[in-house]
Amino acid sequence: MQPPxxxxxxxxxxxxxxxxxxxxxxxxxxxRALFExxxxxxxxxxxxxxxxxxRGFDVMLKVLKEDQPILDNEEILDAIECAAFLLVKPLTKHxxxxxxxxxxxxxxQAASTYGxxxxxxxxxxxxxxxxxxxxxxxxFLPEDQLDYIESIxxxxxxxxxxxxxxxGYLDDISRTICYLDEAENHWxxxxxxxxxxxxxxxxxxxxxxxxxxxxxVDGLSKQIVKSSFCxxxxxxxxxxxxxxxHLRYNLTLTGQDxxxxxxxxxxxxxxxxxxxxxHVASNTWSFAAHLPRPGAGIACAxxxxxIFVCLWLPLDxxxxxxxxxxxxxxxxxxxxxxxxxxGHCMVAHQDNLYVMRNGxxxxxxRCMIDCFNxxxxxxxxxxxxxxxxxxxxxxxxxxGDTVFTVNRxxxxxxNIQEDKWKPxxxxxxxPRSGSMHTFLLxxxxxxxxxxxxx
Length: 454
What we know:
The protein is α+β, with helices and mostly antiparallel strands.
């Protein structure tokens, strides 16, 4: 290992970059092998890379320095070439995080050419989710790429209602998780909740295409449910996993990079600031950095490999924080000051965070949406008013460039545009009472066939 502060000059095309050796060794398999090989390059102050674009190398350095650059098509091509040749996993992850309708086909083709298979798969998944909108643009793709795209299940809109644990000998047919069959305009049962599971004030999220349920309460007494549950989508089976160290309800659960994050919530009528992290591989919980202040029912969104939460302050103020996973710290990103009455939700699309709020107080069913662009660091208010009976927008989920919202009456689907969400389609409402939890899953095709046959 190189001593701290050891630098090397890297010449790419006609540009010379001064880079910390440790950063290259930790991030690039190519440089790790080079500097540990014992070859004369190990001691040289200047290294020349042949055949690589300087622009791609510059993008790589920005990513390694924790920037989140939005790239044009030429930068994407150069970055993919560098990611492939230098074996830079953080750069590949960043490219996956910025896949969009405008670049997904380019990403797929370039990643296929250079053999960046994680990016190939992620691009194919995104294309499958926006397939209907870009079908004509796919006609020139090779047959093997088209077959690969079509072999992937698209993301499906899934919903569950609020339930307390049930008595095992009672057949509660409403304790089901259902998905929207868009072709048939019908909600179909995917699975039933375990008897001991609660979705009332529980933390619920999807990680690696599996559903996780943590905490919650049992009945009006608000007795905290100790057990945690995971639904394996591929195997169509439920299992229990380790309980939180500090039991809670009305918590927020999210997941990323093989870990769950349980944030805030309540215990014995006390609002919590504690955060726990569950490591799926080791089936263990550990404490993470506390929230900047206590919070319950916290709005949360993930985008571009980043986790964001909304924390309220008195008098119509919302602070947006980012949890920096690698540093285990919270960073204030921005503050929103708007008149609002109760409750809000946050969803994300590319480098935009959408914060939905009720208000003003005399019209709480009217939903207003503010958008914060992470790249420009600017707030804008979306044009129009988003009214949906019983607050359906507070259960929003985004697939590709499409927003799904739902209540008992209807599922309303929007297309995301630059300054507004445009209503695009109405489907059947979710036939359950109470609050709802919604998310996206990729259901195995054999599982869908079985469900339709039944």
